[in-house]
Amino acid sequence: MSYAISVNGQVHHVEDDGQTPLLWVLRDTLKLTGTKYGCGAAQCGACTVHVDGQPMRSCTLSLEVASSARIITIEAIEGADVRAIQDAWVAHDVPQCGFCQSGQVMSAIALLRATEKPTDRDIDLAMSGNLCRCATYNRVRAAIHDAASKLGSPT
Predict the structure, then answer these.
(1) Judging by DSSP bridges, how do beta strands 70-72 and 48-51 pair with one another?
(2) Where are the domains of the chain?
(3) Tens-of-pLDDT digits for all 155 residues of the chain?
(4) According to CATH, what is the number of the domain 80-150?
(5) What is the distance between the alpha carbons of residues 101 and 123, in angstroms, rounded to a whole number?
(6) What is the CATH number of domain 2-72?
(7) Which end of the chain is more exposed for a tag (fewer CB within 10 A), N or C?
(8) How many whole angstroms separate alpha carbon 149 and alpha carbon 65?
């Protein structure tokens, strides 16, 4: 079946089974490989994308469901909050092996867009679905606080 799917501001026509996970459409069909495969069960967060502005796991979201939404991937996310997160990630040495980073960044951006001045609890809740093999969780929290403060919201 054919589905029209909006990804990164462009409509793509995809011929695939409606139950195909969005992750595989992004990576294999559209060649957007910034979104990573980690577990396939929506448990690790490596495949996080924004669906109508909300962070979602693309490994369990079907093409059929995704075709009615606006999808943004790590390749096209933009804004002052994105730059603040990127700068804070570097300043706090968050990336280690780098595997989880696209999902971590997408979740952090969604948090900052929803919560101007996140507390440690807000951060822990928002980021709890993103596993990091290198265990940089304290650095992630510090980086999010730093990004929020740079955006004009002292934490």
Answers:
(1) antiparallel
(2) 2-72, 80-150
(3) 999 999 999 999 999 999 999 999 999 999 999 999 999 999 999 999 999 999 999 999 999 999 999 999 999 999 999 999 999 999 999 998 889 999 999 999 999 999 999 999 999 999 999 999 889 999 999 999 999 999 984 44
(4) 1.10.150.120
(5) 16
(6) 3.10.20.30
(7) N
(8) 36
